[in-house]
Amino acid sequence: MANDPVQMIGSSDQQVDCGRGHACNFCPLEEQCDLDKPSHNSLQLSERLGKINWIIPVMANKGGVGKSTVSANLAVALARQGYSVGLADADIHGPNAPRLLGLQSQRSTLSRTGLSAPELPIEGRGSLRVGSLGFMLDDAETPVVWRDAYKHDYIHHLLGSFDWGVLDFLIVDMPPGTGNELITLADTLKGCNTSSLLVSSADAIALQDSLKAASYCLDAELPILGLVENHAGVICPHCGGEFDMFPPAPEAARFAEQGIDTLARLPFTPDIGNGAASGVPVACGDSPLAQIFTELAQACSQRLVSQQRAMLA
């Protein structure tokens, strides 16, 4: 690859494409290249996004509520229904998608088509590709200590440099908060078919913080598919009975008041944690928990179709 000539397309003052499927700073020829690098990167990003039908950022303003778990299982559930799915891990400081999907031994490689997005085997006709900073780190314990400028660039590389191919859905596992990563993503996805999915645990503090994410979406005119309420109850591993883990929170009603429906309620159960630790998401099986994610995937796809029809009407 290092010996390949740089091929530029366009006139001398509008040379923006060399035919490579990745951002300039991944290229071994960058120093000797006279290309218009910002324009090339922008073109690459728009071409990638043009091959993706729907993008679903999975959001919450608080950490530890299960965004990554919901993202991974939703991606699996959609793929099992026959869709082409990508999972983009935007959680820079905690890129857990490789561990959640049993792909932690994989590494991204660079080719003319971009950074490889390892693929998870899926039953049926669907497919699932995964892009994560975790595929580029030396090991899972390596910390990522970046300022905002690096985070901004990484979001662009995540969407534009990974070889996603043609996708029905791209699930984006967002980090906590409404900071730089979310702002960068929202700016990048303007004009794309994008609808967010909110996640919160059932306690009052997490619900209060997730309402901030809802407010951000409403202010940014980013459609919301609905809410996934995690840790909504506890299933006893001995008797199978279920009881609430947290007292009823008045904050839960605020989502309904804003027209945000609860699409799924996930119980607090060892099965979800065991699936995350083993790298085999519960959505891969046929348990009642897998059925919850199947129904969540169906609800999301149906709402996206309704939103698309409304936009075309």
Structure write-up:
By secondary structure, this protein is α/β, with parallel strands linked by helices. It folds into 2 domains: 1-49, no CATH class; 52-312, Rossmann fold (3-Layer(aba) Sandwich), CATH 3.40.50.300. Helices cover 35% and strands 17% of the residues. It has 9 helices and 12 strands. The strands form 3 sheets. An 8-stranded mixed beta sheet has the order 5-6-2-7-1-8-9-12, sandwiched between helices. The chain has a two-stranded antiparallel sheet with strand order 3-4.
Segments where pLDDT lies below 50 for 5+ residues? Answer: 1-14
Overall number of strands? 12
Q: Termini distance?
A: 48 Å
Q: Sketch the major β-sheet.
A: 8 strands, mixed
Please, how many domains?
2
How confident is the prediction overall: mean pLDDT? 88
The percent range for strand residues is: 15-25%
Total of helices: 9
CATH fourth-tier homologous superfamily of the largest domain: P-loop containing nucleotide triphosphate hydrolases
Which architecture of the largest domain would the CATH scheme give at its second level? 3-Layer(aba) Sandwich
Structural class: alpha/beta
Helix content: 25-40%
The top-level CATH class of the largest domain is: Alpha Beta
What is the CATH topology classification name of the largest domain? Rossmann fold
Q: How are helices and strands ordered from N to C?
A: HEHEHEEEEHEHEHEEEHEHH
State the strand order across the main sheet. 5-6-2-7-1-8-9-12
Radius of gyration: 20 Å
Q: Tell me the overall shape.
A: globular
